Amino acid sequence: MPVATAVMKAVRLHDYGGPEVLRYEDVPVPSIKDDEVLVRVYAAAVNPVDWKVRKGLAKSWLHHQLPLIPGWDVAGIIEKTGANAMGLQAGGQVFGLLDLRQSGAYAQFVAAKASYFAKKPATLDFINTAAVPLATLTAWQALFDTAGLIKGQTVLIHAAAGGVGHMAVQLAKWKGAKVIGTASARNLEFLRGLGADEVIDYNSRRFDEIVKEADVVLDTLGGDVQERSWKVLKKDGILVSIVGAPSKEQAAQHDVRATSILVHPDSEQLTRLAGMIDDGRIKPHVDAVMPLSEAGRAHELSQAGHVRGKIVLVVP
Ligand SMILES: NC(=O)c1ccc[n+]([C@@H]2O[C@H](COP(=O)([O-])OP(=O)(O)OC[C@H]3O[C@@H](n4cnc5c(N)ncnc54)[C@H](OP(=O)(O)O)[C@@H]3O)[C@@H](O)[C@H]2O)c1
């Protein structure tokens, strides 16, 4: 579709609520600023933050204006570059994590800072590429930038079959760590295939009665799982939560450290990840592929909480 038509298909939410507030409609193609690129979106992944935003759960910290195009994972081709958009050219195949505070990628085009994008992995198609940025950057930033995970350490990864978890397992193995992952029975073989050293079916065994002296816990669930995670850490070990700030008091009582992170766009990290994908070291798993017009159904599936890997929307 030439940009000259200036209208594109997109999914927007006009109000907060259930999946029915997502409307597939015609909207103007966005214009770009000097430091931005216009990307023709081929695929956009679905993340839990998408339906949290839709339900209005992120209002207090993301401050979106409605109507809003959600979805912050994108794979596509550069259509146009701003005057100061360095390093990228029209026609380039890219992937990126957008700024969660801005308009997203459930659309035929997205305008965003050039610095959010990197060259797409050569060995993946657009669908698999879209599955990478948000989940894998989260895993990288939690495990390496924040926890400082190194070779020989032990990491417990909760929800290891999920979007973040399945990439975290592979990254931690690549680093040379011992990886313990939790999942339901149907996902245990999947986790072993990703390289997990030990797997725990959370329905039949309590991880806090099995895991001892872990250096790092990646907390993707919070609540009771977080509460029970303190005692599996060794002295000075660290719990990194991606679902909210853990209690500093609880951490101190257990002689461990605790922190939370919010993933941020990082083109250099994406370039590194693309190289690791092309070298066959890590690989995203796509559980379901749906057309953009069925974003509501994709949200319902994500919200049910049992996606293996990622859901990806294909953009017409
Ligand atoms: N702070 C940040 O920057 C950041 C970034 C990314 C994500 N997040 C948040 O982190 C959370 C996880 O994200 P995600 O994309 O990985 O989610 P996801 O893909 O939707 O997670 C689904 C997975 O959770 C597993 N699961 C459900 N209940 C479980 C339990 N009690 N124990 C172990 N595994 C369980 C499921 O495995 P089974 O089917 O086997 O049960 C499924 O594979 C979400 O709340 C998301 O919003 C935060």
Number of helical segments? 10
Largest sheet: 7 strands, mixed
CATH class of the largest domain: Alpha Beta
Under the CATH scheme, the architecture of the largest domain is Alpha-Beta Complex
Query: What pattern of helices and strands is seen along the backbone?
Result: EEEHHEEEEHHEHEHEEHEHEHEHE
Number of domain units: 2
The termini sit apart by 10 Å
Bound ions, cofactors and other small molecules, one mention each: NADP nicotinamide-adenine-dinucleotide phosphate
Q: Globular, elongated, flat, extended or rod-shaped: what is the shape?
A: globular
Structural class: alpha/beta
Mean pLDDT over the residues: 97
Number of strands: 15
Kindly state the percentage of residues in helix. Answer: 25-40%
Provide a descriptive summary of the structure in words.
- The protein has 316 residues and is an alpha/beta fold.
- The strands form 3 sheets. Strands 3, 4, 5, 6, 7, 14 and 15 form a 7-stranded mixed sheet that branches.
- The longest helix has 14 residues.
- Bound molecules: NADP nicotinamide-adenine-dinucleotide phosphate.
- The site of NADP nicotinamide-adenine-dinucleotide phosphate (NAP) has 30 residues, from helix 1, helix 4, helix 5 and strand 9.
